[in-house]
Design brief:
ten-stranded mixed β-sheet, globular, alpha/beta, four-stranded mixed β-sheet, 14 strands, UDP-N-acetylmuramoyl-L-alanine:D-glutamate ligase
């Protein structure tokens, strides 16, 4: 299947809205991951018979960009940083629409157009803090290591590459991520990943195949400076009963540090043999929690020159602001 690269678009050709100047703590980052259309809902009661016949009324249904990669890039750009996003889109109107939206808020896009449809997700948000995504992402399945021009990113000033959505492309999962991170290391680019939910964990694969996929991600730990994940994701990925054990197992495999997203309990990090905890920033009213983890990660990545605890505080504040839509770092798509 032939893939056409459009990642050579000059940055000064991209339509950019005026942004605030970054502070001295902010850096230039690259984000590699998924971009799709998210169909989002306001919070739905977890007590409702949502799986039974019938209909449920909620406050709001709306569209945004989706994908951990696109969400992180969007949030980082709206925080005033220089962000390069690498991903695939389909050769269709939706792919064009999503790319245009990213560029309009200041993201420098390096997109690969592939001959399939651009994907969509339905993002359900429950009032007990849990979420569920129903996704069809055929375009991101075609992402491969050749999609990422590391020398070009290095020339653009990127000193950190964040790999989001690690499960959705098998060419990247089985060898591509490892090769990409090795090239980044040689180019002096720091790397990080997000351990999010693998959609294949919910069924369709035997335990041996699930283990194969997990082992493929474990193989890149020695090349990874920061591993992000919420507590439930980390426990499932590591096969551990406690977060302490999960975190230690990742560091034992070579990860530089582990950043734990803990929701209403704040966040924590384990680095250099030290456990650091940070309480949550105050949230008066949750408007939407979908994407708050991506906003947290964006703020954490941008403040790379700060001490680790200060980075956690900055990230917590950004996530709290997003939860209250003050501001909303993943805005609705224009009609």
């Amino acid at each position: 299947m032939k893939i056409r690269h459009v990642s050579t678009i000059r940055v000064d050709w991209l339509p950019m809205r005026k942004k605030p100047a970054p502070s001295g703590n902010l850096t230039t980052i690259a984000v590699v991951g998924n971009i799709n259309l998210d169909i989002k809902t306001s919070r739905v009661s977890a007590k409702l018979g949502i799986t039974a016949d019938g209909e449920t009324s909620i406050e709001r249904i709306y569209e945004t960009t989706g994908g951990g990669g696109a969400n992180t890039a969007t949030a980082a750009a709206l925080m005033g940083a220089r962000v390069h996003f690498v991903g695939c889109v389909g050769n269709d109107e939706l792919g064009s629409r999503l790319g245009t939206h990213l560029r309009s808020i200041g993201v420098m896009t390096h997109l690969v157009v592939v001959p399939v449809s651009t994907g969509r997700s339905i993002a359900l948000s429950w009032d007990n803090g849990h979420r569920h995504f129903i996704s069809s992402l055929p375009h991101t399945a075609l992402l491969n290591a050749a999609s990422v021009d590391v020398p070009a990113l290095a020339r653009a000033g990127c000193r950190h590459l964040y790999r989001a959505d690690i499960w959705f492309s098998e060419p990247m999962l089985f060898g591509g991520n490892e090769g990409l991170f090795a090239i980044c290391r040689k180019a002096g680019i720091e790397t990080s990943i997000d351990i999010n939910w693998d959609p294949r964990w919910n069924g369709g694969l035997g335990s041996r195949e699930v283990r194969k996929r997990i082992d493929a991600v474990r193989a890149i730990m020695p090349l990874t400076s920061y591993v992000h994940g919420n507590e439930r994701e980390l426990l499932r990925f590591c096969g551990s009963r406690t977060v302490d054990r999960a975190v230690y197992s990742l560091v034992e495999r070579g990860a530089g540090a582990v950043i734990v997203h803990r929701g209403a309990r704040g966040c924590a990090a384990f680095a250099n043999g030290t456990w650091i905890e940070c309480p949550p920033a105050r949230v008066r009213r949750i408007v939407s929690d979908t994407g708050s983890g991506d906003v947290f990660t964006a703020a954490f990545l941008l403040h790379g020159s700060l001490p680790l605890k200060s980075r956690l505080r900055q990230a917590s504040r950004a996530a709290a602001a997003h939860l209250q839509a003050a501001p909303n770092y993943i805005p609705a798509l224009p009609g």
